[in-house]
Design brief:
- With about 290 residues, this protein is mostly helical.
- It has a single domain, classed as ABC transporter involved in vitamin B12 uptake, BtuC, CATH 1.10.3470.10.
- Helices cover about 75% and strands about 5% of the residues.
- It is built from eleven helices and four strands; from the N terminus they run H-H-H-H-E-E-E-H-H-H-H-E-H-H-H.
- Strand 2 and strand 3 form a beta hairpin.
- Helix 2 packs parallel to helix 4 (about 90-110).
Length: about 290
C-alpha cells in the first residue's frame, strides 16, 4: 500500500538523515569530510547487537553503542585531523575506515548477524497505516534528536561557536572561540549521532554485518549533497526524501532498482544544482 510504503520510506530515510547531519556538522564546521563515519556507525550496530545477543537491554545497548562511537570519532579527530599535515585529512579518514572494517571482520566475521530488536506486539493503527513498536520508537528517536540538534545549533553557546568557526576560523579565534574544544565536541557529537544511527540500522534491517555502515554512509553523503553541503536541515530533509524514493523504487520497480534510482539523483543534482536544495553557496563551473 502506497501510504504504508511512505511510512517505511520515512523510517529508512530517518537513518540516512541523521548520518547525513553528522557528515554535515564536521564538513560545515571544520571543512573536513569524514569518510570513516559509516564505519563508525557499523561499530555502534555491532556493539549493540553483541549486547542484545548476550541478554542486555536496549537502553544498555544504545548507551554502549554511543560511547564506542564517540570514542572512535575522537580517534578519527586525533589521527586524521590533528596529526596529518597538509591536505591529507580525507585520505587518512579513508584509511581509518578500512582499518576499522578489517577489525570488525576479524572480530565478528563477514557474515550477517541477527539483530534482536523489540519483541513487543504493541502497534498503533491509524486508518490504513499500522505502526509497530519498533517503528514508533525509531520515529520518536529521530524526531527528538533532530529537534535537539536544531536547538543545540541555533540557541546554545556551543552552537554559536560552531557557526562562528564555520563562517570564519580566524575571526572566531580572535573573538575568543576555543577552536580545539569546538573541534573535539563536534566530533563527539558526530559520534553520538553515528551510535544512535547504528542501533537504528540494526532495528531497521534486523541484521548487521561488518559492512553495514558502508552503504548507509554512501546514501547519507548523497543526502548531504542533495540537501546542500553545510545545511544540517537540508541534509535531514534530503535523507528522508531519499529513503522514500528508495522504498518506492523497490516497491514499484523491484529491489534491483534500489541503487539505480538513488545514485543517479546525486549526478542529477550535481548537474542542475551543485549547491543542493538548501545550499547557500554558488558553485563556479570550470
Amino acid at each position: 500500500m502506497f501510504s504504508q510504503q511512505i511510512v517505511n520510506g520515512i523510517l529508512l530515510g530517518s537513518m540516512y538523515a541523521l548520518l547525513a547531519i553528522s557528515y554535515t556538522l564536521v564538513l560545515g564546521v571544520l571543512n573536513m569530510l569524514n569518510l570513516a563515519q559509516g564505519e563508525i556507525l557499523t561499530a555502534g550496530a555491532l556493539v549493540a547487537c553483541a549486547i542484545l545477543s548476550a541478554g542486555g537491554s536496549m537502553p544498555a545497548a544504545l548507551f554502549a553503542s554511543v560511547l564506542v562511537c564517540i570514542a572512535l570519532s575522537l580517534l578519527v579527530e586525533f589521527f586524521c585531523l590533528r596529526l596529518p599535515r597538509g591536505d591529507t585529512q580525507v585520505v587518512t579518514t579513508i584509511a581509518m575506515g578500512m582499518i576499522l572494517q578489517n577489525v570488525y571482520t576479524g572480530l565478528w566475521g563477514s557474515e550477517s548477524i541477527k539483530f534482536r530488536g523489540l519483541s513487543s506486539g504493541f502497534a498503533i493503527r491509524i486508518s490504513t497505516l499500522e505502526f509497530n513498536a519498533t517503528q514508533i520508537l525509531l520515529l520518536a528517536i529521530t524526531a527528538a534528536l533532530m529537534i535537539a540538534l536544531s536547538l543545540l545549533i541555533d540557541r546554545s553557546r556551543f552552537g554559536r561557536e560552531m557557526r562562528a568557526l564555520s563562517d570564519n576560523r580566524t575571526a572566531a579565534r580572535v573573538s575568543g572561540v576555543n577552536i580545539g574544544r569546538v573541534t573535539v565536541l563536534t566530533f563527539a557529537l558526530s559520534g553520538l549521532i553515528a551510535g544512535i544511527s547504528g542501533v537504528m540500522a540494526g532495528m531497521v534491517f534486523t541484521s548487521v554485518t561488518a559492512f553495514t555502515g558502508g552503504t548507509i554512509g554512501d546514501k547519507a553523503m548523497v543526502a548531504m549533497v542533495i540537501g546542500g553541503t553545510g545545511s544540517a536541515f537540508g541534509a535531514g530533509i534530503a535523507g528522508i526524501i531519499l529513503g522514500i524514493v528508495e522504498i518506492l523504487s523497490v516497491g514499484y520497480l523491484g529491489a534491483e532498482y534500489r541503487e539505480i534510482v538513488v545514485f543517479p539523483l546525486l549526478i542529477l543534482f550535481l548537474w542542475l544544482r551543485p549547491s543542493g536544495i538548501f545550499g547557500k553557496g554558488r558553485v563556479e563551473r570550470a
